[in-house]
Amino acid sequence: MSSLLVTGGTLVTMDARRRVITDGGILIEGSRITKVGKSSEVRRESNAEFEVDAKGMVILPGLIDIHVHLAQAMLRGCADDTSLIDWLQKFVWPLQGNYDAQDGKASAELCMLEMIKSGTTTFLESLLHTRYGFDGIAASVETSGIRGVLSKTVMGVPGYGAASGIMHPGMVEDGETCLREVEAYFNRWNGKANDRIRVWYGARSLGGCTPELYRQIATGAKALKTGVTMHLNEVREDADYTKREFGKLPTEFMDDVGLVGPNVVYAHGVWLTELEWKILAEKGATVAHCPSSNMKLASGIAKIPEMIRSGVNVGLGCDGGPSNNSYDMIREMKFASLLQKARLLNPLVMDAETVLELVTINGARALGLGKEIGSLEVNKRADLVLISFRNPHLVPAYNPISHLVYAATGSDVDTVIIDGRIIMKNRRVLTLDEEKVIREAEERGARLLDRAGITIEPKWGYV
Length: 463
Ligand SMILES: [Zn+2]
What we know:
By secondary structure, the chain is α/β, with parallel strands linked by helices. The chain contains 18 helices and 17 strands. The chain has helices at residues 39-43, 84-96, 101-117, 134-144, 175-189, 192-195, 211-224, 237-246, 250-256, 274-283, 291-296, 304-309, 321-324, 329-344, 352-358, 361-366, 400-406, 434-452, and strands at 3-12, 20-29, 32-38, 50-53, 57-61, 63-68, 120-128, 147-154, 197-203, 228-232, 264-268, 286-289, 313-316, 384-388, 413-418, 421-425, 428-429. α7 (211-224) links the parallel β9 (197-203) and β10. The chain is globular. The structure holds zinc ion. Zinc ion is lined by residues 67, 69, 126, 231, 267, 319-320.
């Protein structure tokens, strides 16, 4: 079994006592952490094969992004400053409806490369349509070394909430086929790559499934003992739709069809009401807060501090290329904090420590991986990132947690270790050919726009 020693850094454990260990170290044997403590204690009798010097760095549990669209990485900058309906109908859906499996793989690898380079070690992909090529994307998770939960889209109606019948034909899938495919992908990939890959159900938003199909998803997830994720209450119209169709609030409706539980992650939750927080908290479901996306698409501001106080598990998500336009969780943390302070006119809410919990332990719990990842503790999987603090915007470091949330960016991440394996060292990713991934995305992106008949004209034109 290979062994790796990381020493000399400021170790933010995120354990139950939230210990921060100066001159801290970690011993990793195989894929798991076997010692955590002061460097000198951890080094004693360790005989590790390899050692990483973390002097001047903060050692942090790998970040967990619980709402990602891999296929949208290639669509960054395609739909800026536009209304949600135009965003979907004129840009995102026609483009995604023209993807083939090679485009899906190219975009997914671009996204994984960006995530690794900015410290994300685990992600939850929420809606993989069949045309993006599930097998190719799962194979890329395997080779890139990242930890990924891949949700295969399940839909039965080509609609979205109150405005139905608007989806691009290339995006439309049939409910029975979707359910069969989830099972097939689950059998093929769930638990593969030393359990780095998990397969979930990705239910389409309200209006995209009949109540019966949502029930079938709930039954299927129970039988496979797996998870379900879905966009909910992102837009105000979600509640208009469920009230009109079923006389209930969106979460009440989801509860009726059996889809509120500890294995469920709802993305956005902008328009959730107090009653809905209560249902989510009682049943142990998670909300994936996506502050950049909600701001950019003017969806509204989720009431995150109130939700947390009600007992709802909340994690953080970067969402997608056209809605964020970045997959940098460190940047996202700052937005998550400042947005709530501005909304509530209260600088005391969403302190840096709370925000760091969203991207570590809360994210792990959301994915049913609370015992495996999210903190640096003995017996957990060795998913950790080393962030260089020898940069002008990070000195002097009186409080590393403050710098991580308010001052750092993803490009400060120096080294990434996932499942005990060094995936990035001195900012060089060892598992993916960075140049090739970038070139492939550029070429495929240009061809995709051509195929979809979409041109992106800069407002100020080119000279
Ligand atoms: Zn989304």
